[in-house]
Amino acid sequence: MGLTLEDIARQAGVSRSTVSRVVNGQPNVKENVRKRVQKVIQATGYHPNAAARMLVSQRSWTIGLVIPRTVNYFFRDPFFNYLTEGIAQACNQNNYTLAFFLIGNKEDEEKTFPRVSRRGLLDGIILQSGQLGDPLFDRLVASNIPLVIAGRPFHAEGVSYIDVDNVSAAVMAVNHLIGLGYQRIGAISGPFNNIVTQDRRDGYIKALVNANMPIEEALISEGDYTEQGGYHAMQRLLPQKPRAVFAFSDVMAVGAIRAVRDAGLRVPEDVAFIGFDDLPMDSIQSYQLTTIRQPVIQFGMKAVEMLIDLVQNGEKPARRLIMGTELIIRSTCGASLKK
Amino acid sequence: MGLTLEDIARQAGVSRSTVSRVVNGQPNVKENVRKRVQKVIQATGYHPNAAARMLVSQRSWTIGLVIPRTVNYFFRDPFFNYLTEGIAQACNQNNYTLAFFLIGNKEDEEKTFPRVSRRGLLDGIILQSGQLGDPLFDRLVASNIPLVIAGRPFHAEGVSYIDVDNVSAAVMAVNHLIGLGYQRIGAISGPFNNIVTQDRRDGYIKALVNANMPIEEALISEGDYTEQGGYHAMQRLLPQKPRAVFAFSDVMAVGAIRAVRDAGLRVPEDVAFIGFDDLPMDSIQSYQLTTIRQPVIQFGMKAVEMLIDLVQNGEKPARRLIMGTELIIRSTCGASLKK
DNA sequence: GTGAAAGCGCTAACAG
DNA sequence: CTGTTAGCGCTTTCAC
């Protein structure tokens, strides 16, 4: 351990530069010299020192993933597992290292922020955000380091982001229910201070309007993207006698279905359901949920690719990428009953 | 952007050395000079360059978390969320950066391994392992970088690790069932090639032996730490008519309980249950599971602290830390029926 | 207390 | 094609 270019150069009887060229696969090295150097590298198990390389090249080949726990679903929502998976995968493929920053509270933020924004450590940052007024968002934008927001931010001028087309996805979901002939279509939404929630709600309304169906506030029940939340939201919704429900997440759909069954009703015969996410979760599988599939892993990978683009080709103009979704028909929507 | 020590020094009318001392909070700087320098640093928003600091100090203040997906529960098991949370938290507190390596397949491994083991990038590594014959384990040990295994490894000579006392935990679980007077106590285990599984199984057997109860192979049913797996394992176990079951994870317990109910039996009146983990999961909450609580977040934090100890004080002798668990009594064990 | 100077290990002109 | 040289930005002796 502790080998340097110098050591390899000496052993191979060449100069540092030549070894450097070989290490970096550059041309302009005679084949037999290259072979000789490679042999020494092999034999010694030499690896170039990352810090030195970073310093001289002004590139760390590291990107940061910042997850504020205002997005406090980190614990519970497998969304983050898949997002992280996608990001990690893309980092691997592009030979980037992934630095992971989980920011819980204000104190964390103060301690961690300098590391995040310190030059030299990170080539760029992916921020998983979407919460209204996230203070991290402004600080990161101000810190002037290449930045990609995973999820459309509230103030999007000049910032690059990637998002799923939640509005269209919601329209697709509700259209599916409308197409099956259901009249009173309810929604179980997330917290309204959340941009994803707002988009899906917009889509829900848009689909109803397109179909000339009435919008009833009472048919929208606010959940919190947890199973419990879905259960209670459904309990509040039940008196409105919805014939079908669009739940803004599969997890909430499961909770809502439980509430329906506890009330002595059947799914989909009495209340039909469509969810959102389609992450392969153990606890959901048996429900045969009709749902909207988000390409979460792809989403993570694209975020990395966008960030690398920013790093290599400059941050202007800001990049945008909106990803599509897919309707997955299973049994809770009652489509099979109609045939 | 692009400020260097030199710039600050010039603006403050001192030398680089002095600025460096101020930045690093060293003594031997006159108070008024310190103030002056700090003011310039404030005003300019200067941050020292991480790469340069790494290079000269030979310390990256970065640790790597390596998760092989042989441990392919990453997707589905919230255990990793909590472990990661604990690790991230401890990194924050100690001013370390966390680099995250998710290694899926052989190809990933080949691509990523050089980055993991390259000197300069990482001060040390936490490996989440426990799978029999994990090739990463040997490579990492050989790479001679400070290493902590999260979970007791199969070959433990000379390597530092942290683990939960799974044997005692399982004894505690089964003793609880025995104490409630149950006779035929079954187990739903994980895959046998897994060291955690083996330990819990050993504990299960030990408790029965201590109580002079017979060991029946047929009462141990192999699951895979998923809900489905628990369901099917229970279906196979049901003909043995167990009066109580120790499931090696809460998720499997939930699947098993479903199987019991689908068979027209009641929990805990016909079959009592105790699980393992006690991670706060949405989909489990309503079951009121009696279980063994693992301190997963603590576990992650301790792993980081152990690694930092290794980095700072040398890797010899190897460190060991075995953490205790807690019995959480709720309703599935039937304890309340006995009163 | 403070500054000058050396050097961490590497890359990238620039000569030859 | 290959070697020499000059830094990247910082920490750290060592003088003063």
How does this structure look, described?
Two copies of one chain form a homodimer. By secondary structure, the first copy, chain A, is of the alpha/beta class. Chain A has three domains: 5-57, Orthogonal Bundle (434 Repressor (Amino-terminal Domain)); 62-163 and 296-322, 3-Layer(aba) Sandwich (Rossmann fold); 166-294 and 327-338, Rossmann fold (3-Layer(aba) Sandwich), CATH 3.40.50. In chain A, 44% of the residues lie in helices and 17% in strands. The first copy, chain A, has 13 helices and twelve strands. In chain A, the strands form two sheets. Chain A has a six-stranded parallel β-sheet, sandwiched between helices. A six-stranded mixed β-sheet of chain A has the order 7-6-8-9-10-12, with helices on both faces. In chain A, α1 (5-12) crosses α2 and α10 (227-237) packs across α11. Chain A starts with a helix and ends with a helix. At the A-B interface, α4, α5, β2, α6 and α11 of A face α4, α5, β2, α6 and α11 of B. The first copy, chain A, binds a DNA duplex (16 and 16 nucleotides) through α2 and α4.
